[in-house]
Every structure is written in structure tokens, then in C-alpha cells.
């Protein structure tokens, strides 16, 4: 089987004024056929190659940003007849991903993870002594997680107090997902803190946070069963769409977030809101899973590169 | 002095009473108490290890949480919590389980007048159901004073609003025991008031008249309470 | 019954018909008068009294013109926050306003900024090592705000600490100066503060001649800073004397 | 916050006394400053500053608002700082609030000047007014501490300065004159952006007094040795635009004046360094 | 120490203090059997009571009331609101009671005292149901504008009998209240008329007559402790914490019962005890009425 591999040589677009979708473009052709014959057949008619400058760009002008106002739910076209999405991506195309390890110097492990315009930082502290004695667990490590959003992360400046319901819920989701992959029994009576900070939110923050947390945990050298990677997919205009951005996410359609342990080939996280027929759900979930695998490959490469650097620095 | 009441009751007539206990499975003790359309559910948890906040090495602590039917707890609920707490503290034997906390949760199911008395009665049954040591039972009743001076018992919400003033009174249930009667100056114990809360202006004489009538009506309530407690916990009792 | 709970109608406080009040001074006009007729370098008469709150370990009341402040000190007592062992004591400060303190009805909430400033102004003067593992709480309530609130709170708090018998190196006196146009006015009132171009607040221990806290806003040149600081230091010295005599009176009164 | 042994404390203090700090710097040298602008695309202006292991982001967002009744000819500027728990576990939950408020207040004081808003302010609030008494820009400046290794205030001050230089506010055309209480209609231009004159924005220099000496740009190890510190904001003209004292111990007034003159000297170099870094970052951003 | 056997000898004084802390109830009962209280009061006597009107310049009406060392500061601010459609010609009174951390060692910042909302509710119930204020007097322009009187009471020092002192300060603040002269401007908003404008302004003030509220049947209250057969009037905080049965009686100036409040307590209140309490309260109401009248006359002389 062919590897789905992000184009690592490609340097990301410096200016978001000319934001384009380009990652995975060609490679995803294979995925598609494998995934969904019907979709592939539909797609066969389409032109190959990229068509730039299509669709409004939500990031271009903050003052007049369509980002703040929710697009109306009534029949909006999220996929053009040519089969392109609002930001110019194809339905099965992921946004560009980029990761960097070791961005917070004082943390035990840290990473930045970007999916298109979504950008999150994760920092891991621990394993260390449990701060609150009453929470100590005698036979395994205590994993804690806090998710917070920067005031400037959304289009409209948000002024939510810390610890609102959404943040608490996402904190819990991330904690449970990460707890499942950390070998907590190796570190009894200790505590591991995972802090994720969203710098820019453009849909899929949940997935981005989990990916960033995985990298940060790996950077901190915390023993894990496997890395966890996550990706979301949705279903709009009767088309399954991979890696929804904010506008697609707020369209109100179904949104499936999947987290997998790629090596063990197990699902650790599966969330969906809104309803979806079972057969379509399988398609969408399958698409998200493939996205996860693509992310996993990229993360593995980043980690490998990081290890090589470490080796080099040590003079090995 | 004949009074027309909307539901055709006489002045001293109470609404139909209903009481069932052990209605919740997770709680240590629970009860529901209906007075006409006013319905209150009470649950008791405890005695459990004392929370640090209200630790007392000599006495048990009682904590009341009042859940209104809708909305959030405001000042009114805080006041009710305080009155209930003080009332229940005075009927429980606190020295048996020192350094413990007993929580009583009151959930208002429906309010159709005389809410606080109804809640006190429900809490009382729930405490018995949980087996919390008590000195005696308490029965609570609401008396309304009209502008023309007559007094009615156990008003509905509509009557409560129409009347000039009303008083919530809590009387102790008479103790049938071998112990010497705990009374002073020759007055029987059930004439003493545990709690009294009034609202609106009334003359002092009106108040004493309320006391007298309330005390008489409380005897009926008291009987019902005793009867329903003697019954098997699961079957509910009804009275007219 | 009469009050309808839950329905809080929006209210406003009626304003004067004249749109804007004339500013208290004009541009570069050098001979304007302060609204209360004081000289530029003249402070308001200060009134202090200790022992205003019986249930506190120590307390003081201060009145500077319309600025009225009560400070209570509790402790040293057990730390409420489960803190780690510490061989020095903890100082906990809180400043709040009454709802009617300001001309427009406020929320009466805590003033976090002032709380932390009060903490910083006092911590250098208190011998924290004399009450290890425990906390001293300093709570201030501004009954009426008439300008220079923070300096009054700080001076009053140090008197309350003295009244509570907390060991200190010295009293802390605080004075602020406002810069209006080219003039420096000491101990500004609320109206002057709302027009100020810059301000300086200095808290010091008068007998030790040490500055515990210093805050500037606005644009200052070095000679201006020298002048303003000297002004404040002199005023703090005088204020220190008033505070000292208040304490002496209180002790002599209790001995009688 | 930082637990140090007696030996480590002596090492730091001794190094400072000998003008050679543990990272090889002199007492009055800053760590290298890295400036990156335009890091938050959806803001009107943003910048990220790294000072050793201290890493902060500042963003500027403008929203249309109404001027306050007291000052109808001025826009509003607000500074909020948030300490992300990624910087230190103690900022978790509400733990960072205290420091956040302290930093926000100090920055407001150091960068926005007095209440009248004209003197000592880096930005002239009257330049934000569109229609007097009716429409103005409300400028929200948000700071975020991502990683902290001392000297947060100076770093945030520099980040805000860089973010403001990076800021372009859309030009607004007032459609037609309206009378009375009506809000005038405004058109926000897509093409034309207004830049701020940022030359007047002061820089913040924090001088930490350790023993008898002052150091700039203290790391968190060094900050734990504070007897007292003074943060001074100084503009290009050499005027003091704000000052806050931190740390409890009392200081003799003459020492404060001495510290101010030292800070003035340091600020000249810092302003030049920062300006050239910002210019380089801007050029870098435009290039790509 | 108002102890009969405290002869100024330091060692006995320390012992008495220790006894008071260790066995507070026995300490009190010893006193009660002698018909005296530790602060040298007879059982039925209230502590010294003072009222100072106009303590806060920034409010429209204010008063400082002290009973013993319990101190309350009440202030009223008048704001304008649009009356509700059901009651177009009535204003509104909003009453709030605060216990800031300065008043007692029990209260900590951030966590409001348990007693505060309860006293707050009791106060607004009592004041509004007593009929002391006619809400119609607060009307400015029927259906358009009416006064909203914000009454905030701050406890500055808590030493028992919180409700009594708070009610006294509230009543005093209302009697000090001076309603500002206002007029209606062209936009339908109420604006303030300054004194020099009053004569020459083309706009007629809408409330020239109504500068003071007429207070009819003012309520006064007294809290008593029931302990065995003793009745202790006006308890201190220490007494309240030791003997837990409290009865608060509110009577108005025409001796009508506004509230009789006994929230539980180990001692049962029999008719005779209640009658005794009411009798003491009647006397206390007369006392308080006199103190309030004196405070007002002092104010008017100034």
C-alpha cells in the first residue's frame, strides 16, 4: 500500500492572506479510491490539479470578517459544483499541518501543532509529585489537562471567563484520550499535567490539541502505548469532508472527531454531534480515520527528526 | 363567622395530606409530602464525616440545601435554608453523632402556598426515615389573617396573596414517653413554638389568635404524621 | 410581595442639564484655584481614629475631606489557603468599595488593583518573620470616595496594623500628587483626579526615610520627578506625625 | 517560585557583584531579543517576542465602539494580559489571575499614561475617534505569556510596541452627517489601512536590585533574589512615562533617583535595538 | 470586666477570662442567676444606641446607627426607572444588606457571609410590608418615570443584633432622604436641576413639592434571647453564639405586629414568654422613636 505522506519539503505559506489548501493533494487520490468507490467515481470526472483563488477567504480581512458571523444554515454551498470547498480544498483534502517540538523552554515537554489556521501549543509538566495530596492515586499516575483559548484566538475578540463549559468539556476529552495511551501504571503516586493553549481557532481545535499533546508527551519522554492522533470529518452538501474549518464546522452539519492509536489500530476517541445515517457515518468515520493515519505519519516523522537532532547534538 | 374559600374548605380545614417515605434509593432517608397541590421532596444524607467548613467536635452539624422548582437559589431560598436548618437543629439530638454532617436536600416539586411549612414537614419525615436521633417531631402550619380579622388555615397560593398577613408556625409534636413532661409554667409542651415567621402587619391579638388556632390544627397534622410514620415505609398514606 | 423579585428594571441616575461642566482650570492658566480652595501644596486635614471595629484585632478609620475609609486587621490567624510550610507570615490584603462610594452607583465589588498595591506598600514595613505559618488579613472598605483613595487606605491600614499590635519597622504614610497642566497639586480630590495629566503616589516609612512603593503615570521629566518626590516625602513626614499622635492619644486614653 | 539552595543563591549574587551573570551577561545587558510580527493573522496587528526562554505574544484588535461621555473626543484602549498555564503549572485554573491583573495594570500604567490620556501615552487616543462623541475605535491589546523565564513586563511591553507597529486599522468613511442621537453610518474600507505612529511608545526597563547592584532583564532564578525592583517606562525623549515599584523592601529616595537615571541610559540602547528588530521583522514578513 | 468578684487582681482576672472561654454557658448562667449580664446590663436593657444622619455625602440619604458596638451604615441613592405597566404610578425600593470582610473575623473576601442574604431578605420584607413608604410617592411622571431607591446597608462592625441595627439605620436613612429636584427634558429623560437653575430654567421641575417621603408607621425591632426562663434583650455576638434561641419582634409606631421571627432554637416559646418579649419591645420602640426624633432635630438645627 502506498504511504500517505505529507509534503514535508514544502515550506508553508508565510502570509495567510494567500491561504491555500495544498497538502496531501495528489496523494489523497489513492485514499479516496480505497475509501469510497462512489465518491471516487464522482471525482473521476473532475479535473485533477489545483484551482486557486476560489471561494471567499475567511482570514483576509478581520474587520469585515465573515468569521465572526455564523453563515446561515439555509442551503449554503460548501462544495462548489467543481468539487472544491470554500477554502479551495477538495473534499478529502486536509489542511497543511505543521508541528514543532520544544517551544516552551521551561516545560518538560512541549509542542506546537498547526492545522491550517488552527494553531495550538501544548506543554507537559511531569511526572512530578502530586500537588494535591487528596488526588494522589497509589497505583497509577494522575493525568490532568487544562484547555484554554487565547483572547485573540477567534475572529471576534472573545471575553469568556476561564473554565467555561466548552473548555471544561474539551479538557475532559483530551485528558481521557491521553490517559488511555499513557502507561500510567509505571508512574504511581505522581502527576502529569498537560496544558493546551489555543492561539488560533479555525475548526478542529479538539483534534489539533490532541495531536499537540501527543507530541508534547513524547517530548517529555513519558512512556506511552502508542501515539494518539486525531482528525475530524464532516458531511455537508451530501459530501463527506475531511478536516473541517471553522465555517464548515459552524454550518451545523454532523462533525465526527476520531482519535486513534495508529500502530495498535484502535480507536480511543469518537465523538459526533448531529445525526447521520449509519452507512454514511461509516464513510465519514473512515475518512476521519484515514486523516488520523496521515497525521500519525507526519507526527512520526517529526519525532524521528527531533530524535536525530538530539543525537546529533549529543554527538552520537 | 363563615368564610367562603375558593376550594370550599372551612376556615380550619386543611387541604388533603399525603406522605410517603423512602421514595429515593440512594438517599439515606427521604420523603415526599403533599399538602393539596404543594408538593415537596426531601432527602437526607448522613451522618457523614464532618466537612472542614463546619466541623464541630461536640455537635453534629446540619446542612440544608433548598432547590427551588425553577431558577437559581436567591435570597428567599437562603432564608428558607437558614430557617429550616435552625428548626431541624432544635429537634435533633446533636450530641449523639459529634463531628458529623447531615445534609438535607429539599426539592420543591410544586408551590401552591404554605411552602415552608410543607418543606419542614417533609424534612421531618425524611429525618425519621434516615434514622437520625431526634428529641421530638415537629409539625408546621401556615395561618392567614384576613383584613376583616378572620383566620384561615393552610392557605393556597392565591389565598396567601389576597390576605393581609400570614404566619408560619412550627409546633413540637407531643412526646408520649415515660420521661417527665418538658413544659414550663404548666403549659403543655405542644403549645410552645419552635419556629415562627410572620409576614405582613397584624395586631398582637391576631397573632395570639393565630397561635391558638394553629396549635389546634397542628394536632390533626401531628396525628397524621404519627400514623404515616407507623406504617410500613413503602406504602404511602393519604388523609382527607 | 410589594417588591417584584427577578425583575430588575434598568435605571439611570439623572445628570445635570448642562452638557459638560467647565474644566476646573484652563490650559496654561497658572492662577486657577482648587475647587476646595486649598493651595497647590496643601493637603486636606487628616483625621484618624483607631479602634473603629470592635470585632477586629485592630482597626482604624480615616477621613480626608470626603474620602472615608475603614480598615480592619484580623490575625495573625490560621492560613485559610492550605499553604505549604512557610517560616514567615503571610499578608493578605483586600480593598472593596461600598455601592454608594462613588458618584455613580457602583457594584461594590473588590478592587483587585488596589488590593495588590496595598499589599506591596505594606509588606516592606511588616516584620513577617514574627508570625510564621500564619496570616494577617488587612481588609479595607472605602465608605466614600473623594479622591486619593489608595493613599488614604494605605495610611489607614498601617495604623490599623499598629492598633492590632503587628510588629512593624515603621508606620507607612502615603501621599499622591497630581499633575494638572504645569502645576503639581498634592492630595487631589476626585474632580482633580479626573482631569489629571499624570500622577505620582509615594508611600514611605517616615522615620526610616525609606520608600516602600512608588507609582508614576503620565509623562515626567527628571526635574519634575525630583520636585514631586520631594513634595510627597515632606507631606509623608507630616502625615506620619499626625498618625503617630493618633496612636499616642489612643494609648493614653486606654490607660486612663 | 524557584527553589534555590544557599549555594546557588550565593553563586548568583556573587556573579552579579562581579558583573558576570550565570549566563555570561553583564549586569546591564539584555538577553538577545527575537521579534516576529504578524503572527496572529486574524488580528489587526500582532507580534511575538522571545527573550531567552521568555516567550510572549501580543495582539491588537480594533472594534468600533462609542466614546465615553466624559471624553467624547477620545477612543478607548485597553490592555489585558493572560498567563497561559503552558508557561508554568501554577497558572492553571485561576492561578494565573493574580499575576495577569498585576501585569495588565502595570502595562496600562506604563504605556497608556494618565487619565486625561494625552500625556505619557504611547498612542494618542484622539487619533482613534471617527465621529466625535459617536463612533470611535476601541483598541483591545491582548498579551499572552506562553513561556516564562523572568522579566515578563519588559517582554510584554516590547511585544505590544511591536504589535502596534504592525497594526493597520481599516480606514473608515462616514457615510453621511446625521443629527441628534442617531448613530452615523460608517463604511469600513477594505484597502486602505491606517498605521500608528509608534515612535512615541515607551519601552519598559525593569531594574532589579540584588545586593548593592542593579541588573536588567533578570531570569526567574535571579528574580527570586529580588530585594526590590523598579519598572520604568521611558520614551524616546527620555521622559518617564510610568513607574511601578515591585518587591517589598524599602528604598532610599536617592537610590530610586539613581535607578531612574540608570534606566534612562539603558532605555536608549533598548529602544534602538528594538526598533531595528521590529523593522527587520516587518521586512521579513513582507518579503514572504 | 464587670464581674462582681474581679478585684483588679491580675491572676483572678486571667482565671475569669479562662473560665469564660472554657465554660461560656456556665459563666453566663452564673450571671443570669444574679440578674445581670457580663457587660453590667440588666437582662431587659438594650445597649447604648446612637444615630448619626447624613454620614455619606455622595448619597441622597444616609445614616449611621450604632447599638453597642454593632455599627451599620445605610445609604440611599435615587435613580430613575421606567415603571412597570401593572403599576405605572409606583416607584420601587431595592434593599441590600452587605457584610464586608471588615465587619467580622468570620467573613472572608470572596465568600459572602451566610447571614447577609438572610438579613437582607428579612429587611426588605419588613420594610416593604410595614407600609412605611408609599411607593406612589416615588412616582415622577405616571407611566414614564419613577424613582428607584437603592438602599444599601453595610455592616461595619458585627456584634450581635444585626437585624435591629440594620433596620434602625435603614429607617433613619429614609428619614434623612432628600429627593433631588428634577425635570423632564425633551428626550423624555429625567435630568437634574442645579440650584441656580431652579429659578430661571424654562423647564418646570416635576417634583417641586415632593422632596421628602412621608413615613407613616415606622417599624422598630428588638431581638431577645430566650434561655430557660430568662429573656435577654439586645444580645451581643457572644451571647448569640452561646444561647441559640433568638426571637426578633418588629412593631410599628402604632404597636401593630410587623414581624415575629423565631427561627428554631432549642428553647420553645410559650405564650407567656412571647407576651413578655412583646412588652419589652413596646418599651424599646418608644426609646428608639425618641432617639430617632432627637437625631432628626439635631440635623435640622445644623
UniProtKB/TrEMBL annotation, chain A:
It is found in: Cytoplasm; Nucleus, Nucleolus. CDD domains: RNase_PH_RRP41. Residues 93-223, 226-290 form the Exoribonuclease phosphorolytic domain. One of its GO terms (molecular function) is RNA binding. Pfam families: RNase_PH, RNase_PH_C. It comes from the Eukaryota. Its main location: cytoplasm. Keywords: Cytoplasm, Exosome. One of its GO terms (biological process) is poly(A)-dependent snoRNA 3'-end processing. One of its GO terms (cellular component) is nucleolus. Belongs to the RNase PH family. This is 3'-5'-exoribonuclease family protein isoform 1. The lineage of its organism: Eukaryota, Viridiplantae, Streptophyta, Embryophyta, Tracheophyta.
TrEMBL record, chain C:
The keyword GTP-binding does not apply. It is found in: Cytoplasm; Nucleus. Belongs to the RNase PH family. GO terms for molecular function: 3'-5' exonuclease activity; RNA binding. PANTHER family: EXOSOME COMPLEX COMPONENT, EXOSOME COMPLEX COMPONENT MTR3. Keywords: Cytoplasm, Exosome, Nucleus, RNA-binding, rRNA processing. Residues 8-20 have a biased composition (Polar residues). One of its GO terms (biological process) is rRNA catabolic process. Residues 42-166, 170-231 form the Exoribonuclease phosphorolytic domain. Residues 1-24 are annotated as: Disordered. This is 3'-5'-exoribonuclease family protein isoform 1. Its main location: cytoplasm. The keyword RNA-binding applies. GO terms for cellular component: cytoplasmic exosome (RNase complex); nuclear exosome (RNase complex); nucleolus.
UniProtKB/TrEMBL annotation, chain D:
It is found in: Cytoplasm; Nucleus, Nucleolus. The keyword Cytoplasm applies. One of its GO terms (biological process) is U1 snRNA 3'-end processing. Gene3D superfamilies: GHMP Kinase, N-terminal domain. CDD domains: RNase_PH_RRP42. GO terms for molecular function: mRNA 3'-UTR AU-rich region binding. Its main location: cytoplasm. InterPro entries: ExoRNase_PH_dom1 (IPR001247), ExoRNase_PH_dom2 (IPR015847), ExoRNase_PH_dom2_sf (IPR036345), Exosome_comp_Rrp42_subfam (IPR050590), PNPase/RNase_PH_dom_sf (IPR027408), Ribosomal_Su5_D2-typ_SF (IPR020568). Residues 30-170, 200-264 form the Exoribonuclease phosphorolytic domain. Keywords: Cytoplasm, Exosome. One of its GO terms (cellular component) is nucleolus. Pfam families: RNase_PH, RNase_PH_C. Belongs to the RNase PH family. This is Ribosomal RNA-processing protein 42. It comes from Theobroma cacao (Cacao).
UniProtKB/TrEMBL annotation, chain E:
Residues 46-180, 218-267 form the Exoribonuclease phosphorolytic domain. It holds the Pfam family RNase_PH_C. It is found in: Cytoplasm; Nucleus, Nucleolus. Signal peptide: none annotated. GO terms for molecular function: mRNA 3'-UTR AU-rich region binding. Keywords: Cytoplasm, Exosome, Nucleus, RNA-binding, rRNA processing. SUPFAM superfamilies: Ribonuclease PH domain 2-like (SSF55666), Ribosomal protein S5 domain 2-like (SSF54211). This is Ribosomal RNA-processing protein 43. It comes from Theobroma cacao.
Amino acid at each position: 500500500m502506498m504511504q500517505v505522506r505529507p509534503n514535508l519539503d514544502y515550506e508553508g505559506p508565510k502570509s495567510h492572506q494567500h491561504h491555500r489548501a495544498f497538502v496531501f493533494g495528489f496523494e489523497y487520490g489513492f485514499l479516496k479510491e480505497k475509501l469510497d468507490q462512489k465518491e471516487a467515481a464522482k471525482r473521476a470526472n473532475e479535473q485533477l490539479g489545483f484551482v486557486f483563488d476560489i471561494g471567499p477567504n475567511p482570514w483576509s480581512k478581520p474587520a469585515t470578517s465573515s468569521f465572526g458571523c455564523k453563515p446561515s444554515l439555509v442551503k449554503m454551498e460548501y462544495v462548489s459544483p467543481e468539487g472544491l470547498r470554500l477554502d479551495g480544498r477538495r473534499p478529502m483534502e486536509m489542511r497543511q499541518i505543521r508541528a514543532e517540538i520544544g517551544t516552551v523552554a521551561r516545560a518538560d515537554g512541549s509542542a506546537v501543532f498547526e492545522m491550517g489556521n488552527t494553531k495550538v501549543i501544548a506543554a507537559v509538566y511531569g511526572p512530578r509529585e502530586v500537588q494535591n495530596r487528596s488526588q494522589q492515586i497509589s497505583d497509577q499516575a494522575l493525568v490532568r489537562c487544562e484547555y484554554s483559548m487565547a483572547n485573540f484566538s477567534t475572529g471576534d475578540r472573545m471575553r469568556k471567563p476561564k473554565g467555561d463549559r466548552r473548555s471544561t468539556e474539551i479538557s475532559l476529552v483530551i485528558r481521557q484520550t491521553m490517559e488511555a495511551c499513557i502507561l500510567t501504571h509505571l508512574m504511581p503516586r505522581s502527576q502529569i499535567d498537560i496544558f493546551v493553549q489555543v492561539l488560533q481557532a479555525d475548526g478542529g481545535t479538539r483534534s489539533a490539541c490532541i495531536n499537540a499533546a501527543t507530541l508534547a508527551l513524547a517530548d517529555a519522554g513519558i512512556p506511552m502505548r502508542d501515539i494518539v492522533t486525531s482528525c475530524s470529518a464532516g458531511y455537508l452538501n451530501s459530501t463527506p469532508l475531511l478536516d473541517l474549518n471553522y465555517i464548515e464546522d459552524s454550518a451545523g452539519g454532523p462533525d465526527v472527531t476520531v482519535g486513534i492509536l495508529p500502530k495498535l489500530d484502535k480507536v480511543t476517541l469518537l465523538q459526533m454531534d448531529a445525526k447521520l445515517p449509519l452507512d454514511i457515518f461509516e464513510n465519514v468515520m473512515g475518512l476521519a480515520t484515514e486523516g488520523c493515519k496521515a497525521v500519525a505519519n507526519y507526527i512520526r516523522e517529526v519525532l524521528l527528526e527531533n530524535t536525530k537532532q538530539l543525537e546529533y547534538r549529543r554527538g552520537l | 363567622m363563615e368564610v367562603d374559600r375558593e376550594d370550599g374548605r372551612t376556615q380550619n380545614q386543611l387541604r388533603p395530606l399525603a406522605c410517603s417515605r423512602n421514595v429515593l434509593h440512594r438517599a439515606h432517608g427521604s420523603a415526599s409530602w403533599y399538602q393539596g397541590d404543594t408538593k415537596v421532596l426531601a432527602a437526607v444524607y448522613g451522618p457523614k464525616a464532618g466537612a472542614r467548613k463546619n466541623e464541630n467536635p461536640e455537635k453534629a452539624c446540619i446542612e440544608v440545601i433548598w432547590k427551588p422548582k425553577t431558577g437559581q437559589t436567591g435570597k428567599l431560598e437562603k432564608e428558607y435554608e437558614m430557617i429550616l436548618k435552625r428548626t431541624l437543629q432544635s429537634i435533633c439530638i446533636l450530641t449523639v453523632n459529634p463531628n458529623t454532617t447531615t445534609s438535607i436536600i429539599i426539592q420543591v416539586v410544586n408551590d401552591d402556598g404554605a411552602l415552608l411549612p410543607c418543606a419542614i414537614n417533609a424534612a421531618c419525615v425524611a429525618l425519621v426515615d434516615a434514622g437520625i436521633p431526634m428529641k421530638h417531631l415537629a409539625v408546621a402550619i401556615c395561618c392567614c389573617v384576613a383584613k376583616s380579622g378572620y383566620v384561615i388555615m393552610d392557605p393556597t397560593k392565591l389565598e396567601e396573596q389576597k390576605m393581609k398577613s400570614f404566619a408560619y408556625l412550627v409546633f413540637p409534636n407531643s412526646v408520649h414517653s415515660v420521661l417527665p413532661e418538658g413544659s414550663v409554667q404548666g403549659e403543655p409542651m405542644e403549645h410552645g413554638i419552635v419556629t415562627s415567621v410572620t409576614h405582613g402587619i397584624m395586631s398582637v391579638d391576631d397573632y395570639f389568635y393565630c397561635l391558638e388556632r394553629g396549635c389546634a390544627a397542628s394536632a390533626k397534622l401531628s396525628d397524621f404524621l404519627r400514623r404515616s410514620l407507623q406504617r410500613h415505609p413503602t406504602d404511602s398514606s393519604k388523609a382527607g | 410581595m410589594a417588591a417584584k423579585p427577578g425583575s430588575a428594571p434598568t435605571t439611570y441616575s439623572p445628570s445635570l442639564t448642562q452638557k459638560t461642566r467647565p474644566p476646573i482650570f484652563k490650559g496654561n492658566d497658572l492662577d486657577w484655584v482648587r475647587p476646595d480652595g486649598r493651595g497647590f501644596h496643601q493637603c486636606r486635614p487628616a483625621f484618624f481614629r483607631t479602634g473603629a471595629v470592635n470585632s477586629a484585632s485592630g482597626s482604624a478609620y480615616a477621613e480626608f475631606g470626603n474620602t472615608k475609609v475603614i480598615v480592619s486587621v484580623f490575625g495573625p490567624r490560621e492560613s485559610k489557603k492550605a499553604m505549604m510550610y512557610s517560616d514567615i507570615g503571610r499578608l493578605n490584603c483586600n480593598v472593596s468599595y461600598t455601592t454608594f462610594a462613588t458618584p455613580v452607583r457602583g457594584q461594590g465589588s473588590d478592587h483587585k488593583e488596589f488590593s495588590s498595591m496595598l499589599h506591596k506598600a505594606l509588606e516592606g514595613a511588616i516584620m513577617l518573620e514574627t508570625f510564621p505559618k500564619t496570616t494577617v488579613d488587612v481588609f479595607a472598605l472605602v465608605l466614600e470616595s473623594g479622591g486619593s483613595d489608595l493613599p488614604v487606605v494605605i495610611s489607614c491600614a498601617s495604623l490599623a496594623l499598629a492598633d492590632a499590635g503587628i510588629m512593624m519597622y515603621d508606620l507607612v504614610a502615603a501621599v499622591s500628587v497630581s499633575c494638572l497642566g504645569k502645576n503639581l497639586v498634592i492630595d487631589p480630590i476626585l474632580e482633580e483626579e479626573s482631569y489629571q495629566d499624570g500622577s505620582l503616589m509615594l508611600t514611605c516609612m517616615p522615620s526610616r526615610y525609606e520608600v516602600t512603593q512608588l507609582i508614576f503615570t503620565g509623562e515626567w521629566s527628571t526635574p519634575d520627578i525630583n520636585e514631586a518626590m520631594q513634595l510627597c516625602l515632606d507631606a509623608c513626614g507630616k502625615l506620619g506625625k499626625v498618625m503617630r499622635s493618633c496612636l499616642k492619644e489612643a494609648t493614653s486614653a486606654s490607660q486612663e | 517560585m524557584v527553589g534555590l539552595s544557599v549555594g546557588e543563591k550565593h553563586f548568583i549574587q556573587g556573579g552579579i557583584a562581579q558583573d558576570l551573570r550565570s549566563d555570561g551577561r553583564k549586569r546591564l545587558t539584555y538577553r538577545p531579543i527575537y521579534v516576529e510580527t504578524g503572527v496572529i493573522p486574524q488580528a489587526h496587528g500582532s507580534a511575538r517576542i522571545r527573550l531567552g526562554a521568555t516567550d510572549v505574544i501580543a495582539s491588537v484588535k480594533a472594534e468600533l465602539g462609542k466614546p465615553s461621555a466624559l471624553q467624547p473626543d477620545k477612543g478607548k484602549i485597553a490592555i489585558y494580559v493572560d498567563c497561559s498555564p503552558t508557561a508554568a503549572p501554577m497558572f492553571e485554573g485561576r492561578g494565573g489571575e493574580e499575576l495577569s491583573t498585576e501585569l495588565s495594570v502595570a502595562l496600562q500604567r506604563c504605556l497608556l499614561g494618565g487619565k486625561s490620556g494625552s500625556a505619557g501615552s504611547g498612542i494618542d487616543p484622539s487619533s482613534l475617534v471617527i465621529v466625535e462623541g459617536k463612533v470611535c475605535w476601541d483598541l483591545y491589546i491582548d498579551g499572552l505569556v506562553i513561556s516564562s523565564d523572568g522579566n515578563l513586563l519588559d517582554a510584554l511591553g516590547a511585544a505590544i510596541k511591536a504589535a502596534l507597529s504592525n497594526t493597520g486599522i481599516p480606514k473608515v468613511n462616514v457615510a453621511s452627517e446625521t443629527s441628534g442621537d442617531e448613530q452615523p453610518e460608517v463604511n469600513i474600507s477594505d484597502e486602505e489601512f491606517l498605521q500608528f505612529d509608534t515612535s512615541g511608545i515607551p519601552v519598559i526597563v525593569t531594574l532589579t536590585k540584588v545586593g548593592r547592584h542593579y541588573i536588567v532583564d533578570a531570569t526567574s532564578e535571579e528574580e527570586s533574589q529580588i530585594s526590590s525592583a523598579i519598572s520604568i517606562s521611558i520614551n524616546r525623549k527620555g521622559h518617564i512615562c510610568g513607574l511601578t515599584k515591585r518587591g517589598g523592601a524599602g528604598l532610599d529616595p536617592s537610590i530610586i533617583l539613581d535607578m531612574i537615571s540608570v534606566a534612562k541610559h539603558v532605555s536608549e540602547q533598548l529602544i534602538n535595538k528594538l526598533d531595528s528588530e521590529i523593522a527587520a521583522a516587518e521586512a521579513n514578513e513582507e518579503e514572504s | 470586666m464587670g464581674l462582681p468578684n474581679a478585684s483588679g487582681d491580675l491572676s483572678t482576672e486571667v482565671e475569669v477570662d479562662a473560665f469564660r472561654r472554657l465554660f461560656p454557658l456556665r459563666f453566663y448562667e452564673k450571671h443570669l442567676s444574679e440578674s445581670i449580664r457580663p457587660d453590667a446590663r440588666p437582662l431587659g436593657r438594650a445597649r447604648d444606641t446612637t444615630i448619626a444622619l447624613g454620614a455619606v455625602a455622595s448619597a441622597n440619604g444616609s445614616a449611621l446607627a450604632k447599638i453597642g458596638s454593632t455599627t451599620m451604615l445605610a445609604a440611599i441613592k435615587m435613580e430613575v426607572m421606567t415603571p412597570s405597566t401593572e403599576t405605572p404610578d409606583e416607584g420601587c425600593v431595592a434593599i441590600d444588606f452587605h457584610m464586608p470582610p471588615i465587619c467580622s473575623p468570620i467573613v472572608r473576601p470572596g465568600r459572602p457571609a451566610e447571614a447577609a442574604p438572610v438579613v437582607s431578605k428579612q429587611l426588605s420584607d419588613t420594610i416593604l410590608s410595614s407600609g412605611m413608604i408609599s411607593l406612589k410617592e416615588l412616582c415622577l411622571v405616571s407611566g414614564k418615570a419613577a424613582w428607584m431607591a437603592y438602599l444599601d446597608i453595610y455592616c461595619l462592625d458585627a456584634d450581635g443584633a444585626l437585624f435591629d441595627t440594620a433596620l434602625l439605620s435603614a429607617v433613619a436613612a429614609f428619614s434623612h432622604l432628600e429627593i433631588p429636584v428634577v425635570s423632564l427634558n425633551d428626550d423624555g429623560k429625567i435630568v437634574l436641576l442645579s440650584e441656580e437653575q431652579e429659578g430661571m430654567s424654562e423647564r418646570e421641575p416635576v417634583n417641586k413639592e415632593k422632596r421628602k417621603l412621608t413615613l407613616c408607621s415606622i417599624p422598630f425591632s428588638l431581638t431577645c434571647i430566650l434561655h430557660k426562663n430568662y429573656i435577654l434583650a439586645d444580645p451581643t455576638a457572644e451571647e448569640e453564639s452561646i444561647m441559640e434561641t433568638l426571637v426578633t419582634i418588629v412593631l410599628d409606631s402604632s404597636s401593630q405586629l410587623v414581624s415575629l421571627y423565631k427561627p428554631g432554637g432549642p428553647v420553645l416559646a410559650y405564650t407567656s414568654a412571647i407576651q413578655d418579649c412583646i412588652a419589652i419591645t413596646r418599651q424599646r420602640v418608644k426609646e428608639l422613636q425618641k432617639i430617632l426624633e432627637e437625631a432628626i432635630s439635631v440635623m435640622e438645627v445644623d
